[in-house]
Every structure is written in C-alpha cells, then in structure tokens.
Amino acid sequence: MTLSAPSSRNLSGAGDGSGDLGSCTLDDVAVLMPAYNGQSDVDRTLASFSEAALIHVLIVDDGSTPPIVAPTRPGMSIEVLRMPKNGGIERALEAGIDALAERGFRYVARIDSGDLAVPQRLVKQRAFMEAHPGVAGLGMWTQVVSRDGAPLFMLTPPAEPAAIRRQRFFRSCLAHPSMMLRVDAVQSVGNYRAAYRSAEDLDLFLRLMERYDCANLPELGLYYELNEGGISATKRRRQIGSTLRLQLRYFNVLNPYDWLGLAKNLLHLVTPYQTLQRVKRALLRARAA
To answer: Domain span at residue 76?
Structure first.
C-alpha cells in the first residue's frame, strides 16, 4: 500500500470545504494525556498546542498528589479524569480510551506531559486519517530534546505501512506520544492493556497491524523530552522483558529485521542505559549529517 499526504484541498477535513487548514474542525479529536504528578509539565505541554479550531483534551490523573488541575487555556476544552489510585500508564490509557469512546470522539491524539506539540499537528493528522480510512494509527517524526530543551537527535521512521511492519522490532517505527489513533479500532483490538507492562504501546500497535495499517507523516510533529525519570529509564528491564515476549509471540523467521530486532533487544538487556543513549545519539547525528 502506498500512502501520500492529502492535497491542500483535502486538508480541509470536515471543515467548510475551503481547503484551508485553519478552517478544519477538530470536534471529533481529543488529546489524551496520562499524568502522574508534574503539574508544571502538564501546563507546559498543553501550552504548546496551536490549532485554529477548539482543542479537546482529556487528562487522566493517575493518582497524583496533589491532584492534577486542569489549566484554563484559550481555545481548549480540558477535562480531568481521576483514577482512584496510581495504577500505571497502561490502566490510565485504557480508561482514557473508554471515556473518549463514551463521549463520541473518533480520533485520539496521544501526548505525554513534558513533550511539546508542533503547531497544526492535530489538523494534519486528522486530514491524513480522513483520507486514508485503512490507517488506524498515524505517527510523525520526532525531535528528541533534553530536559532543558536542547536538541539531541531526530527520529525519522518510515512512512509506509509495509516498511513499518517489516522493521517493527528493529527500530522504534511509531513514536507513541506523536500518534493519532482511531478510537473504534483501538477498542476493536482490545484497547490498551497491562499484559506487557511498560511496552503497552508496542503491544497495541502489533494488534492494530493485524487488522489495519499504521503509518507516519514524514514531517516534524513532536518534541519528545528525554526524561531520565521516564519509563524507558526507570523501568527499563521490565520494558525490555515485555518487548522480548512480544518479539517471540509475533516472530517471523523469514523476516531478517525480526532477527536483527531480537539481537538488538538482547544487547539492550546487557548494556547500561547511559551507554545506549550515547551510542544512539552518535549514530543518529551521524545519519543526519
């Protein structure tokens, strides 16, 4: 399947038909952001969104102390869903998807607190998904930055569904906080779940790709903050273990990228996190040069 971005005429989505991105409605799109403490990160992330249409946001407060408070921002309708206790990102996302389905939203745009959205990210993703109904998940290129905002490296995964399927275990083909997802498709494959802790995104994407396509818009959509206190750092061994279990479950002996991905993940298991980050930065910078 070959995908192409919609023309400027099609980018009007469900708007007034003028073909202007600024005229596109986002009434069927909601931003889903799980949060555990970090009120200032929540505020900073929401402030980064810039769209011409009203932006709907659901914050899932995963037992924060003190509770997360919805900031008042122009052009945003923000709701906070409070979990009864801290149960982990998997349960928070599952509850968020169910809540958005009940409210009638068709699309959910993921982002994590601390990350920043590029202007018009939502309208571009929605327009693409409207033009490609077989795509259930759409990511974008991601600029990885340090905690103080310094650029570290770019993630430029493949755009085409076939390439994403081939390389699914060899590289991070879908940056979770950059994704827009079809709510009904997520529910049809069983929603987020806690069966693969700290790898809930890969688990969902693999199930989606059994029935639908996943793709990427080959342009910058997200600034991802490399947080040393994030899941990839603090729950690394659990994440690697969950990823290995998924690799074995979906392993295709005829796909060389599956073999390479397995070797890569085993290497991650025995290599210190800081060493991996230094190597990744060096390789990605060299590729960009």
So the answer is: 10-226
